[in-house]
Design brief:
The chain has 308 residues and is α+β, with helices and mostly antiparallel strands. The protein is 32% helix and 13% strand. The protein has a domain at 3-170: NADH Oxidase. It contains 11 helices and 10 strands. The protein has a 4-stranded antiparallel beta sheet, with helices on both faces. The radius of gyration is 20 Å and the shape is globular.
C-alpha cells in the first residue's frame, strides 16, 4: 500500500474516532525548539516541575522514543463544554469538567493503533497523550494544526484552543502536512488579561507564575503569599488566556459524553466548595483529572482563595 493510501486511511480513522483535526509531520529533530526549551529551563520557568528537566534529548527527537520513527501523527480532540459553571464560584478549568482525558484518549489511540496493524500489517510505533516527553504543541504546529499563540497554547483558525492534543509516532512513511502562519498579529489580550502576569513576554510563559501550575502542579502545603488576591477565584487550572482569545469565538461544544460534567458540579457555589467533604469530592470527581490535586489539594486551594 502506498504512503498516500496509508495517509488517507489514517485521516479517515482519526475522524471516525472523533478527532476533529489530524495532521502529519516527519519524525525529525526539533531544531527550532531546542534552544527555546534550553533557555526556558535555564531561566527556571518550570518552577518545581523537575520532571521537565528529564529526557531533554527525547523531548526533541521522536526517533529516540520509537525505533525507526518516520512520522508523527498529531490529533486534536475538542473538550469545549456546552454549559459552564455558575457565576461567582470557585472555578475549575473546562478541560477537567468531565472524566480524565488521559484515559478517554488513550483508549481511542489504542483502538487506532490496532486498526493500523490490522489494515496495514506490521506497523511499529507508540501512542502518546500528555504522559511522556513529547512536545505535543510543537508537533501539532509542524503538521499544520495551528500555530503557537502568545499564551503558548496551540490555536486553530477553525476551532480556537479548547482541545486536547495526542500523537501516534509511527515507523511508517506518510504524506506530510506543512505548518501554517501565526495569526496572533498585534493582539495582546492574553498577556493583558493574565491575573498573575505569567505571560512574561509574547510566546513566553513563566510556568512558576501560572495559576494552573500553582493549583495543580505545585505540591507545597501553602501557596506562595505573593499570589494572594491575584488568582481570580481559579481553584483548579485556569482558562483566562483562552477565554479572552478572539479565536475561541469559533469554539463549538464537544460531543464526547465522557467530558460532560457531573450534574452537581456546575451548580456549586463558593459555600459548597468551602464545605466540601471528602465523600462528596470522591463522588464528584470519581474519574476526573481533578483527582491529581487530591482532596487536600482542593482544600488548600479553596482556603487560599477564601483568605485572599
Amino acid at each position: 500500500m502506498s504512503k498516500e493510501k496509508h495517509t488517507r486511511l489514517i485521516k479517515e480513522k482519526a475522524r471516525e474516532l472523533g478527532f476533529f483535526f489530524c495532521g502529519i509531520s516527519k519524525a525529525d529533530f526539533l531544531e527550532e525548539e531546542a534552544p527555546r526549551l534550553e533557555k526556558w529551563l535555564n531561566n527556571q520557568r518550570h518552577g518545581k516541575m523537575n520532571y521537565m528537566e528529564n529526557h531533554f534529548d527525547k523531548r526533541l527527537d521522536p526517533r529516540l522514543l520509537v525505533d525507526g520513527a518516520k512520522s508523527v501523527v498529531s490529533l486534536l480532540l475538542n473538550y469545549y463544554p456546552s454549559e459552564k459553571q455558575a457565576e461567582n464560584t470557585y472555578k475549575i478549568s473546562k478541560y477537567a469538567y468531565g472524566q480524565d482525558y488521559h484515559h478517554i484518549i488513550k483508549d481511542k489511540l489504542k483502538e487506532f493503533f490496532q486498526y493500523l496493524q490490522d489494515e496495514i500489517g506490521e506497523v511499529g510505533g507508540r501512542v502518546f497523550v500528555d504522559s511522556a516527553p513529547v512536545m505535543d504543541k510543537a508537533w501539532a504546529k509542524k503538521s499544520g494544526l495551528g500555530w503557537i499563540g502568545k499564551n503558548s497554547n496551540l490555536i486553530n483558525t477553525k476551532a480556537g484552543s479548547f482541545f486536547f492534543i495526542a500523537e501516534l509516532i509511527l515507523d511508517l512513511e506518510l504524506q506530510e502536512d506543512g505548518p501554517i502562519k501565526d495569526f496572533c498579529g498585534t493582539c495582546t489580550r492574553c498577556i493583558d488579561a493574565c491575573p498573575t502576569e505569567a505571560i512574561v513576554a509574547p510566546y513566553v510563559v513563566d510556568g512558576s507564575k501560572c495559576i494552573s501550575y500553582l493549583t495543580i502542579e505545585l505540591k507545597d502545603e501553602i501557596l506562595p503569599s505573593e499570589f494572594k488576591g491575584k488568582m481570580d477565584d481559579w481553584m483548579f487550572g485556569c482558562d483566562v488566556c483562552q477565554d479572552v482569545c478572539p479565536w475561541n469565538r469559533f469554539s463549538k461544544p464537544h460531543n464526547t459524553k465522557a467530558f460532560d460534567p457531573h450534574e452537581n458540579l456546575l451548580k456549586m457555589n463558593k459555600a459548597d466548595w468551602e464545605d466540601l467533604t471528602e465523600e462528596v469530592y470522591r463522588e464528584l470527581f470519581k474519574k476526573s483529572a481533578v483527582k491529581r490535586t487530591k482532596f487536600n489539594g482542593v482544600q488548600r486551594n479553596v482556603s487560599f482563595l477564601k483568605s485572599s
